[in-house]
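fold description:
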Amino acid sequence: MNDVRPPVKRWTPRAHVSQPDRVPTPSLATSPARPLTVRDLTACADLSEDRGWPREEHKWGLLLAAGRGYGIDDPDGGLAAACVVTSYGPVDRPELAAIGMVLVAERHARQGIGRHLMQQVLADTGPVPLTLHATSNGRPLYEELGFKTVGRAEMVRGRFTPTGPLPDVATRAATGEDLAAVLRIDAEVFGTDRTHVLARLPAFADQFRVAEADGELIGYAAAWPNMDTQVVGPLIARDTETAKALVASLARHTDRPLRTDIDVRHEELLRWLKAAPDVDTAGFNAVMTYGTADLPGDWSRRFAPLTVAAG
């Protein structure tokens, strides 16, 4: 009987089949920021809300139209971080830029994204002097990046009812004919031209008023809507009495609480504001600069910014 055995299967090594390399998800702390426009307004407001801030869509709309927005997209949707830079002076050679609305989504906090975003802004703005208003939480980062504190602003808020006699300064609603004089005095006080922002003020603000003496414009102020308040700013005035008259005139023409950020060096105005029964301090911000030892212009006539986000 023949012994028939099954054929032996010989093992041969398989050829190596290469697998495609996995593309790692880039870290948001190294992702380049993209320009933001008014089309991103809802995403910016969502980011504000994510951090517990008011949505402030009205303010975001102005800043995105008048300034340059920076945003880092979240791969899961929305924005992981954002800020806005508003430049002043000639378009081709800005003399000052204000940084504001620096926000990082809560889910991406403490991962270096805010620092990375600010470094991109510093690289883009180059030698242009910068300014910003910093909260106590943000100030350490800005100091590490080279910003210096040059002042403080005190936020006051409430339904303003002035006590005692009012200043004997004439005020009235601004008209289109006042814009040239407003721009002239503002450039003197602010230290550089910001026509592209102030030209939007009549449409942006609920109130826009001027103070006069002997037919000459000696100050102006606006009050614009922000959630349940009207924010007083800018507030530019020849002296403290003129500033008081402008604030009082704004208060007379609204039934909403007022809010404003006053340079703390204007002690008399702050005392007068806080003497009103319903007005209290709501907080402080550090005024910081980068690339310049101080802000340009005349601080003695600059009482409050348009918004702390735009200087």
Remarks:
- The first helix runs from residue 41 to 50.
- The two ends are 106 Å apart (CA to CA).
- The mean pLDDT is 92.
- The first strand starts at residue 34 and ends at 36.
